[in-house]
Write a structure and sequence with these properties.
The complex is a heterodimer. Chain A is of the alpha/beta class. Chain A contains 12 helices and 15 strands. The longest helix of chain A has 23 residues. Chain B has one domain: Orthogonal Bundle (MetI-like fold), CATH 1.10.3720. In chain B, strand 1 and strand 2 form a beta hairpin. The chains are: A alpha/beta, B mainly alpha.
Chain lengths: 397, 286
């Protein structure tokens, strides 16, 4: 009896397994040599009444964070598209969210955009349907991270640098270099933070570009095995200094406020939020430059609300909305006309919106591939999947 | 109509059984076993290194990565250590508490005590853990403020904080089964033991403990399995420390098959644990 029951349980379980395996093998194969063909929107129709957005915290504000920070309510009234937003903590998060097919639009950074394009998760964007596209800075259009073979896959949003944040009342003298977060004898040991994502390896690579020129790192997202191992070593040595790695920006802001974190990688928006709560904190772009981002609004290939999605992309690229986001998030706007509309008239100067020289030492997040992105052909570079493995190993050791 | 249906079903016990069990069995097979089967199958897949899309090809690479990287051995041991500590701490705290509730408190206050033990379960998990974050905050947290003057300091965020937080969260799940077990224990057994000259501790060891052992096992299954799979507590008060759940959380968005492989570890540990429990015979008398 006992044996018979066991057999029948096993039989049921294996049938279930077979059914499930059968169901899932129907989807398309993932390894493509080129970009999966996805149709572009031809003509704009009526709005669907809502749009689901995956965005970085601070990109879609409806006044609930700060009553004065709101560029969503007006859009909702004007178009009848209710905006539902889901904040992504990291680029990996965003890629995963977009793969679910539940969202229409995403604000993708350079380390997500190409993965989304080649994964067939986003559709080409018909820029003719977006009147505000005309005013975007020319040098942000059709770049390596937002277009493939002359086809645009998104609308440039804005750009900025990852900052070195510190508590001005605790960290003295003020830091000027990334070396302060890698210094084994740091007096702030245990109160230093770092960004919790594999892409943070690029920050270590950037540090090595300056401290170990003999490694020959030219671009922090193109690391051969030797360079990559050196970057991993830097982060291993840094781990004892770290109190918490941050992925959740709200926890990070709380930590800055309480003094649990006094020094480390941050974003301007976090600095703004912490300052808003009365914390004495500042963020700088250190002497050696920084990693950074240049973000792109993209539309899902499975968008259920494509018309509202296009309306949103046009709205967020408009001078007024683009200026408001750029100022709130602390980044350079992408629309040339935004600069006239910022509350702080110096915003575009401060954030170097049109200053190409400034961006020379900002390395926008990119997806590392086996083909070295810096143009070297004599070696193979370490692809992003290996970055993920190394990061997972580092975090769990 | 209803009457004739019930007469009909009364005559056909087989049909009755089918009608009764179809829904729960379907639920069990599809939602429960189905998810587990999916997990097992996914663990053998791999991903496209660029787009991160899952490639459905049989592959042992994930298991190779998991077994060769020392980091994952450490995280398994660490998680086991935490789960065992939490279970131990919960047991030590729950036995006297449950004993007082079942044997010493008056019937009226008994009910109030049970209600009190249950109240924390009404509050959200997140709220409770964020409260512990404020309590444990090194330097200016509540614990340091309260106990600092007598020289006791907060352990800060890390392993001890996780053990404290999880023990706090799961304590009711340990108290309730022990309380139920003690309530069923006849008082005259304790009296008889005392009359025969046994000290309190001896009575506890030789009479109470063996009789409530199934309750302890039931409670430990909750505390142990819940701790084994938890990741939010570690995220909020664990500092930079990660548990098995965190590895899954960290990888599921980037590398689902690897996350599935890691998720097999707590599943296997629990299966082994249940097997061992079964061998002690505690399940039969539960």
């Amino acid at each position: 009896m006992q044996k018979k029951r066991l057999v029948s349980i096993l039989a049921v379980a294996s049938v279930a397994a077979l059914i499930l395996a059968g169901c899932s093998s129907g989807s398309d194969s993932a390894s493509n040599s080129g970009v999966p063909k996805v149709d572009m929107m031809k003509k704009l129709g009526a709005g669907e009444g809502q749009v689901n957005i995956v965005a970085w915290a601070g990109y879609v504000e409806n006044g609930s964070t700060d009553p004065n920070v709101d560029w969503v309510t007006g859009f909702e009234k004007e178009t009848g598209c209710k905006v539902n937003v889901k904040n992504g903590a990291t680029s990996d998060d965003m890629v995963a969210l977009m793969k679910t097919g539940e969202y229409d639009v995403v604000s993708a950074s350079g380390d997500a955009s190409l993965r989304l394009i080649y994964g067939g998760d986003v559709a080409p964007v018909n820029t003719d349907l977006i009147p505000n596209y005309a005013d975007i800075f020319e040098n942000l259009k059709m770049q390596q991270w937002n277009s493939v073979d002359g086809v645009a896959y998104g609308i440039p949003h804005g750009r900025g640098a990852n900052l070195l944040g510190y508590r001005t009342d605790i960290v003295k003298p003020a830091p000027t270099s990334w070396a302060s977060v890698f210094d084994a004898n740091s007096p702030y040991k245990g109160k230093i933070t770092a960004y919790d994502s594999p892409i943070y390896l690029a920050d270590a690579a950037l540090y090595l570009m300056n401290t170990k020129p003999e490694l020959g790192i030219k671009y922090p997202y193109a690391l051969d095995q030797t360079q990559f191992d050196a970057a991993v070593e830097v982060l291993k040595a840094q781990k004892p200094l770290i109190g918490e790695y941050w992925g959740d920006y709200l926890k990070h802001v709380a930590s800055l406020k309480s003094g649990g974190t006094v020094l480390g990688t941050t974003w301007q928006v976090n600095i703004n939020l912490a300052k808003g709560e009365g914390t004495k904190v500042e963020g700088i772009k250190p002497a050696e430059g920084s990693t950074g981002w240049s973000d792109t609004w993209m539309i899902s290939s499975k968008a259920k609300n494509p018309n509202c999605a296009y309306l949103w992309m046009n709205h967020i690229a408009s001078p007024a909305a683009n200026a408001a986001v750029a100022e709130w998030f602390g980044e350079a706007p992408s629309n040339a006309k935004s600069c006239a509309l910022t509350a702080d008239k110096n915003h575009c100067t401060t954030f170097h919106a049109a200053d190409d020289a400034y961006w020379k030492d900002v390395y926008y997040w990119n997806t590392p591939t086996e083909t070295c992105l810096d143009g070297r052909t004599d070696v193979k570079c370490v692809p992003y999947a290996e970055w993920v493995k190394a990061w997972s190993s580092l975090r769990n050791s | 109509m209803l009457h004739s249906l019930s007469t009909y079903l009364h005559k056909k016990p087989r049909l009755r059984l089918v009608a009764l069990l179809t829904t729960p069995v379907l639920w069990l097979v599809i939602a429960y076993l189905g998810a587990l089967a999916m997990l097992l199958v996914t663990a053998f897949f791999t991903i496209d290194s660029f787009t991160g899309n899952v490639i459905q090809q049989f592959n042992l690479g994930n298991f190779h990565d998991m077994l060769t990287d020392a980091a994952y051995k450490n995280v398994v041991l660490r998680t086991l250590g935490i789960a065992i500590s939490v279970t131990f701490l919960c047991t030590v705290l729950a036995i006297p508490m449950a004993f007082y509730m079942a044997k010493i408190a008056r019937p009226k206050s008994q009910k109030i005590l049970v209600a009190l033990v249950l109240t924390p379960l009404w509050a959200s998990y997140l709220v409770k853990i964020y409260a512990w974050r404020t309590m444990l905050e090194p330097g200016n947290g509540v614990l340091d403020w309260l106990l600092g003057p007598i020289g006791i300091h907060s352990p800060g965020f890390g392993g001890p904080a996780i053990i404290i937080g999880l023990s706090y969260l799961w304590l009711p799940y340990m108290i309730l089964p022990i309380y139920a077990g003690l309530e069923r224990l006849p008082n005259n057994l304790l009296d008889a033991s005392g009359d025969l000259g046994a000290h309190n501790f001896y009575t506890f060891r030789k009479v109470i403990l063996p009789l409530i052992f199934p309750s302890l096992v039931a409670g430990s299954m909750f505390t142990f399995s819940l701790s084994l799979g938890d990741y939010i507590t570690a995220q909020i008060i664990g500092g930079k420390l990660q548990m098995l759940g965190n590895v899954v959380y960290q990888n599921f968005s980037i590398n689902l098959p690897f996350a599935a492989t890691i998720a097999m570890i707590p599943v296997s540990i629990m299966a082994l644990y249940l097997y061992l429990v079964r061998r002690t015979g505690a399940l039969a008398s539960m």
